[in-house]
Amino acid sequence: MSTTFESRYASSPAEVKHMDTAQLRQAFLMEKIFDADHIAWTHTHYDRYLTGGAMPVKGPVVLETIDLLKAAYFLERRELGMINVGGDGIVEVDGEKFELAYKEALYIGKGKQQVIFSSKNAQTPAKFYLNSTPAHHSFPTRKVSKKEAEVVTLGALETSNHRTINKLLVNSVLETCQLQMGMTELQPGSVWNTMPAHTHDRRMEVYFYFEVPEGQSVCHFMGQPQESRHIWMQNEQAVISPPWSIHSGAGTSNYTFIWGMAGENLDYSDMDHCKITELR
Fold first, then answer.
1. CA 132 – CA 135 distance, rounded (Å)
2. 3-class DSSP state for residue 146?
3. Residues marked as binding?
4. DSSP letter, residue 22
5. How far apart are CA 214 and CA 265, in angstroms?
6. Residue ranges for the binding site for Zn(2+)?
7. What tens digit of pLDDT does each residue of 185-240 get?
């Protein structure tokens, strides 16, 4: 097993305005999240957010520190959230085991020294989608199922954005330092997410798209409301959204996505909405 990481520098609206398709994808898109028995982290300088995936196949995968952190262990000064998007799995945290089924989440607080990921069946391995942010305080480790989430239904089939938002690792459900994670499921016949679009200057965001049917894609929209850009994305890919950028998408089919956020703001509803007719 090995752990690798790459770092992405923050880009200003002025820079992004001049990027071509390849440059946009290089700066913001994470094309491969899961690799058997390997954790590949992507670090962005927006709020020092880390995104990765753990897929144990041949055996357990251990959460290791990386040079970037200059820490004795990964969670020395960080918190970690995850949602399982694969088969049944087990996460062992300093000797305590948590079983995670499909679409169940786990929060691990600052200071936990040993985290081990396992799959119950190598033929249908677990896929732990991981998000991590700096942390100043240690909060308890806690598993959150969809039944325990705060659930909100928005949109309508008439506007192609009927969706269910599952707030899993958010401050209305459990305490965290700054990490917030949840999952939005689009209903059949709906393709638009986060529309009307918005920005939020006090936090950045990462979107992970999955349950995208074979042969289908999602077009992710980003950039300033008056200067938008787009990135075509495939199943199980993630994209970085700066605080100044909208983050919205439309698929060629319905799909599900996980949103993760970090910054000084824990208020989910703190958004600067953009009128659909004023997007450019």
1. 9
2. helix
3. 198, 200, 205, 247
4. H
5. 37
6. 198, 200, 205, 247
7. 999 999 999 999 999 888 999 999 999 999 999 999 999 999 999 999 999 999 99
